Amino acid sequence: MEFSTLHVRQGRPCPPMPSSPVAAVVDELAAQLPDRINQPRLITEGDQTALLEALARVPDPRRRRGVRYRFAAVLAIAVCAMLSGARSFAAIGEWAADLPADARAGLGLTGRVPGPVTIWRVLVRVDRAALETAIGAWIQARLDTIDTAGHQPPQRRRRVRRVLAVDGKAMRATRHGTHPVHLLGVLDHARGVVLAQVDVDEKTNEIPLFSTVLDQIPDLTDVLITVDAMHAQTAHADHLHARGAHLLVTVKRNQPTVHTRLKTLPWKDVPVGHTTTGRGHGRIETRTLKAVTVPAGLGFPHAAQAIGDHPHLPSDQHEQEEDRGQAPPAT
């Protein structure tokens, strides 16, 4: 974790401060705004206004007495500075100090610019969940605007199902700190955009927060949700079924009954639906996918289909795996 030593005007050093925890919220915001119509897009005055309006919905934890700067303006400084590459309180403060007068006015600053200590005091007390929601709403609105501007009427294009991935991620900048940050996010497969995320507390895991993060997305009707084996939970299937969504989940031995029943399905009699060949982990691997309608009584609620993933190694690589005492990947 990075640390910065700052100095106030009196020359007295401030205590070392860890890198901004807001990095857990906006660390990858630059990648969240892809080029939607193959042309670079600048953030307009309307985008700035929309950002300030979104950040104004975040509750201000400060007392009214002694407040010098608008809360939304301080948050806007942090967001824009981190979009520009700042990754510490000191860097955010330096970025704000270098702003020209017109840029300060665009961020809602009418007088002095808040220093890094002021920014630190604000950000360490901000409601992270509310900030994530506000920034996510601003990103989604801007993407919708760009998509609308570059939209062309489709010509008998086949219907494409919306696919969202729910997955957790440990924030690299906080991994070795006292309180590492772990986020559970919802990623749009087609856009590559995180639509929602929640902080996973150290005393819990991703499972109880599955419905919480998906509740941030208003409409999941006919949406396909992909998850890893951790989320092969019957409660998750019930939740998505109630919201009209579909679930694609990997089943491993954490669900032994379902896993055994899936392995006993007549896969040899099922035709291959798709084949792909890839290189990774020092080997070439061919994978075949087979899909079959599952019978009632599989042991997992609302189950309709099963997909078998069958990896195959070339014979020489298979022998090398056995020589090293490693078995080939399991089905």
UniProtKB/TrEMBL annotation:
It holds the Pfam family DDE_Tnp_1. Residues 309-325 have a biased composition (Basic and acidic residues). The keyword Transmembrane applies. The chain crosses the membrane at residues 71-90. GO terms for molecular function: DNA binding; transposase activity. InterPro entries: ISAs1_transpos, Transposase_11, Transposase_11-like, YbfD_N. Residues 53-139 form the H repeat-associated protein N-terminal domain. It comes from the Bacteria. The keyword Transmembrane helix applies. Residues 302-331 are annotated as: Disordered. Residues 160-290 form the Transposase IS4-like domain. One of its GO terms (biological process) is DNA transposition. Keywords: Membrane, Transmembrane, Transmembrane helix. NCBIfam families: transpos_ISAs1 (NF033564). This is Transposase, IS4 family. The lineage of its organism: Bacteria, Bacillati, Actinomycetota, Actinomycetes, Frankiales.
